[in-house]
Amino acid sequence: MRYVLFPGRHHLVTRFQVASLRRLLAQHPGAEVVWAITSADHGGTRRNPIPGSRRLGLVEAVAEHEGLASLTYLVVNRRPKPDFAHYVVEEIRTQTGGRVAMTPENTVVACSTPAVIADYEALGFPIDTVELGLDEARPWDVVEAIVAAGPGWADDAWVTERLHPVARRHYLRYGLAETIQQIHADPLVDTDDGDITVTRDYASYRAAFEDNAWRKVGEFADAVRPGRIVDVGCATGQTIKLLSERPELFESDFYGVEVARQLYEICLQRTAGGEFGDANVFFHQRNIMQSRLFEPDSVDTVITMALTHEIESYLGREALLEFCSRVHTMLRPGGVWINYDVVGPDDGDEVVLARLTTADGADGPIDGPIAGLSSRARFERFAHDFRREEGDGITYDTVVVDGEEHVRLTRSALYEFLAKKDYVESWYSEAHERFCFFSPGEWTGLLERNGFVCTTRTRPIRNPWLIEHRFAPAARVLRLTDEGPVPDPWSWTNVLLVAEKPLG
Questions:
Q1: What DSSP string describes 246-277?
Q2: Residue 412 carries which DSSP code?
Q3: Cα separation of 47 and 129, whole Å?
Q4: Which end of the chain, N or C, is surrounded by fewer C-beta atoms within 10 Å?
Q5: Which helix (H) or strand (E) holds 177?
Q6: What percent of the chain is modeled with pLDDT above 90?
Q7: Mean pLDDT of 78-97
Q8: Apex CA 421: angle with CA 417 and CA 426, to 5°?
Q9: DSSP label at 404?
């Protein structure tokens, strides 16, 4: 045997793994360990908390310390497929220009995961099962123990007995345990792969965000203070790209903070592709509510686009209030918070009547496909799905006005529907999110109570395209008065908040 193939994510190395590799190398003199570090392009998620580059350093440090003849290769993530074992072998062969060509005749696979073992056995590779069937902890068992141990992990006897001492030093040197613990404690990321929600269509989300970013940035770019500029919830980095092209901001440092892995990876790809030119741009995959990236009084501009409604929707009102406080703390005196987001209507609790058309689609069952439904049928589906899991959805009834059925509900509930009814690809994601929790005036009042001063640039925005193409064709809205129902003017669709931290 020339090779001992050791595939895995390798977030840490245990003492038992090293002993097993020593045994295999002794059985096969002259062989080398091939560490295939899988999911190497993922990091900052519950499944892959440590980036591949840092895992590579850990593995090589252990191998060097132990004198293990080793080769290490980073293998990017793939969705689960039956041919993953073949993919790993071919990827390493390709990376080495054919120099490391592993076959069942020259390679034994060291692996303790039954599904992975089956893949390699199907290709004819002999297997050493390492911890499988033995009373030995696997690496992920130790990772979970580190999460459970909290700040005292380094002194936990169970962890120390199993974690290789070089891996322990690596964890201490680079704060890896704290990184893993922080990610696992993050309430915003609810999937193993670092997504805010499993139902979001990121391709559609990216297209919509980038298509609209130039218009939104144009509305507030002149309010950005040069210096240290932080875009929280930066998505694909498009806002930063547009701002970095403005001459008055050429000397600024731009920081993008994004929690969703798929969006963060787009930012890194754009950086590698040179899309930000020679601007000073730095991206972090973090939930800023779980970490303090910036010292108090150290930031000149904080930008949030389509973020505050997600904090309200997924983390709740207390978290939103805490976020406002954190932004205030981060800003230097004279610094500015620019918040562009969806917004609720004025007098959102007032009851209105909506005549929803049935002419733009079909009726359908409550659990059938959404695309193709009429606005009226789609409303029934929305009323069923909106905030259903959270238990704070919308209520309504129907009344007849001038011989036509109208839905009777609050103005806020109506605009929750109108703002979301066309997001068919990400319907279930949108159904979790609340847009109409504050009116523009309520936002201004909140910020001023939290120490900000809203500038004259602060204003509600009514998007004429949305009203003409999405709202008006779907609904006729009436307001109830003493004289009877009268047409209700269309509400705001967004708000631009430009709030300063006072100098004094």
A1: SGGGTT-EEEEE---HHHHHHHHHHHHTTTTT
A2: H
A3: 22
A4: C
A5: helix 176-185
A6: 82
A7: 89
A8: 120
A9: E
Q: Which helix (DSSP H) or strand (DSSP E) does residue 356 occupy?
A: strand 351-356
Amino acid letter, residue 315: L
User: How far apart are alpha carbons 460 and 473 in whole angstroms?
Assistant: 23
Distance CA 184, CA 44 (A): 10
Give CA–CA dist 234/239, Å, rounded.
Answer: 7
Cα(368)–Cα(351) distance, rounded to whole angstroms? 29
Per-residue pLDDT, averaged over 312-337, amounts to 95
pLDDT digits 0-9 by tens, 247-289:
999 999 999 999 888 899 899 999 999 999 999 999 988 877 7
Q: Which residues contact 460 (CB under 8 A, 6 or more apart)?
A: 343, 440, 492, 494, 495, 496
Per-residue pLDDT at 191: 47
- Tens digits of residue pLDDT in 235-252: 999 999 999 999 999 999
Question: Which residue type sits at 488?
Answer: D
Non-local CB neighbours of 489 within 8 Å, separated by 6+ positions: none
pLDDT of 504 higher than 80 = no
Q: In 339-466, which residue ranges form alpha helices assigned H by DSSP?
A: 375-385, 411-420, 427-432, 440-449, 464-466
In this prediction the pTM is 0.70
Those residues with Cβ within 8 angstroms of residue 75's Cβ, 6 or more apart along the chain or in another chain: 7, 36, 37, 38, 39, 40, 87, 88, 91, 92
Whole-number CA gyration radius for the chain: 27
* Cα 328 to Cα 242: distance, rounded to the nearest angstrom: 25
Using an 8 Å Cβ cutoff, are 160 and 12 in contact?
A: no
Indicate the average pLDDT of the chain. Answer: 92
Ranges of H-type helices in 301-385: 308-314, 317-330, 375-385
Cα 399–chain centre separation: 42
At 195, phi and psi to the nearest 5?
Answer: -105, 145
Pairing of strands 484-487, 475-481: antiparallel
Among 190-204, 301-315, 392-406, 470-484, name the one with the lowest average pLDDT: 190-204
Question: Whole-angstrom Cα distance, residue 477 to residue 494?
Answer: 19
Residue 123 is given by DSSP the state T
272: left (phi over 0), alpha (psi -120 to 50) or beta: alpha
Structure tokens at 382: 């929305």
